[in-house]
Amino acid sequence: MSEGLYTIGELARRTGLPVRTIRFWSDSGVLPETGRSAGGYRLYDEAAAARLDLVRMLRELGIGLEAVQRILARRVTVAEVARVQVRAVDAEIRALRARRAVLSLISERGATTEEMLMLHKLAQLSAAERRGIVEEFVAGTFAGIELDADAAVIAEWMRELPDSPSPAQFDAWVELAELIADEDFRQRLRRIALSGPGPLPAYELRARVLAEAAPALAGGVPPGSAAGRQVLDVVVGPVADRGELLEWLETVADARVERYWALLAALNGHQQAPPAVPAFTWLIAALRAHDGAAT
């Protein structure tokens, strides 16, 4: 070592970096040499050694050589580059999460080759592409249907998907993608939209079904029994046309539709409503059993 100067080999021993890496950085211009020895070896002073430590730190943070050069030339600040790098790291984390979710699903399900390809393809979709799939589904389902205010809000909510789904949300997204690709499900949802409001306010009816029919179902009360008739009367009240109510319930009470809402709630971090379709199924059976005797 010349006085106060280091060769590439000495810098390598000092930093633990490979000689070829330091030589490459020097050739790239991020570590200019201070001078040459009598034998033609590159020499670097203390300032260059400190610069090498900075380059090493920036590279370990994943910042490319071109950005490092801009930082060293003071054409851009470290903070500006760091902000860009944060976005790149976030994208990489999202990709890793999606990859982990796919691997977890494959290990849990024992997926076939075709399923693995499908899962991998879904994992590669961007947030915009995922939204596009839901957009197409919503647009196709409600095409030509004039939605009321509540239905319009619900249709917009259908479009909500997280930019960076967790493994659990990715699992929900996979199930959702499979569901909305089912043409029979699409047609069922369209029939529900076309059926319009029922003879009873939907939210009020759902509350009564959960309060009365659900306990009857859990308690093993037969829908066609006298006790079942009493529960039915409490739930539906003095409805003018129970036949109309039965027809409407048979259209809207669908387990797949309820699962769809549960998946959307899981994807968007919303609280999931308690399942109501089993209790509605009990109510439908009670209406069928007692409709002939209804007044």
What is the structure about, briefly put?
This protein is an all-alpha fold. 69% of the residues lie in helices and 1% in strands. It has 15 helices and two strands.
Task: Describe, in plain words, how this protein is organized in 3D.
- With 295 residues, this protein is mostly helical.
- The protein has helices spanning 8-15, 19-28, 46-60, 65-72, 78-109, 113-124, 127-141, 149-158, 167-180, 183-195, 202-218, 226-236, 242-252, 255-268, 277-290; strands at residues 35-36, 42-43.
- It has a two-stranded antiparallel ribbon with strand order 1-2.
- The radius of gyration is 32 Å and the shape is rod-shaped.
Q: What is the typical, i.e. mean, pLDDT?
A: 81
Give, in order, the helices and strands. HHEEHHHHHHHHHHHHH
Can you tell me the residue ranges where pLDDT is under 50 for at least 5 consecutive residues? none
How far apart are the first and last residues' alpha carbons, in Å? 107 Å
**Strand order in space, largest sheet:** 1-2
Global structural class: mainly alpha
Largest sheet: 2 strands, antiparallel
